[in-house]
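pinging the channel bc i need a second pair of eyes. not urgent but kinda urgent?? the chain im working w is below, pasted from the shared doc
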Amino acid sequence: MKKFFRTIHLYLSLFAGLFIVLASVTGAIMSFEDEINHTFYAERYFVESENLQRLPITELMNAAEKATEGGKASGVKVYNLPNRTVEISLTAKEKPTAIKEQTERKDKKSKKPGFLVFVNPYSGKAIETVKAGESFFKKVEMIHRFLLSKKGGIGNYVMSYSSVFFFFILLTGIILWWPKSNKVLKQRLKIKWDGKTKRLVHDLHVVVGFYTSLVLIIVVATGLIMAFPVINSALFKLTKSTTESPKQPKSRVTDTTEALDLTAMAQIIEKTSNNWESYSFKFPKDKDEAIGVSILEKGALTHKTNTYYFDQYSGGQLGALAFADKNLGQRVRSYIKPIHTGEIYGLPTKILGFIICLLTITFPITGVIMWLNRLKKAKGVAN
């Protein structure tokens, strides 16, 4: 039976090994995205703030829209740190030719280019504009998920199914590792550092592989949930939940053309939570949609946000959706990405994820060496 599992383990590894290494390298790079960005692009994220008064959010939005030559604000993120910039998301206005092309080809979805503008909340100066998809880490993510292809493209399928193969590689690896006796168990739980090269390569693959597999199975499983809609649906069926969120309240459509006082709205949010870490505005795309404001409490996990809804015309609060009010499936699903990326418990789990990614890179190398050694041994016996 072990010979059967060894064959599966080997051929799946030979096929998917290169892509597993690629996913591990890019995963390791993305482990400290925030920390790296804040270090190398500090001027983008931090400003002087001593004894200064913050400007109204509307003024900051205007500054961001001017910086993108007519872009329209689609979201705003504010941090509860005096020295942090305000991040404003924008979509570019479509040119007449683009509108014409979209009308002529209705069967193809047209996506407006997006921008992220970092604005000094005290001076109103647009410090830097970053085009969506052009940052270094966005490109790394595109390699990690799509091989620089797109969702539904060939690269997407290659990376997704390589993850499926990796999952079975991990399972068969544990089966092959499983010892027959306590004596063998002791050997497979520690590396014989003073052994010969062949033994050291074996231990690095088998022993380290076992310990990392305990984490990797979870990491890969969460990746599969995000990659395959059918697995995502299975999660909701398992928790007897629906993917549909509670119906959002609607704005009361009026003929008013006055701009809302978003600063007053922000003050309501800040008073609602005495210990907030950040909050984000999401502006409506349709005339009857509400303005959504998601707030993250200090010390809360990054996905555990509470959302408040406001009328886009009057600014009045329409309702709220707390994280605790979501159904079981939605709450469980919200943990999937932070578990996969390692950000679930901040720096400690990021470091763990980084180390696991680096160790994973070594497995195809040690595995191939072991396979070649086995081929040489078999050839020697045959001769």
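so The CA atoms of residues 320 and 337 lie 24 Å apart. and The chain has a mean pLDDT of 89. — does that match what u expected or am i reading it wrong
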